[in-house]
Amino acid sequence: MELVRIKRHYQITLPVGIRKKLNIDIGDYVEVENKNGDIVMRPVKVVHPDQEYFYTKEWQEGEAQADKDIAKGDVVGPFDNIKDGLKALKKAKI
Question: Cβ contacts of residue 86 below 8 Å, gap of 6+?
Answer without folding.
Answer: none
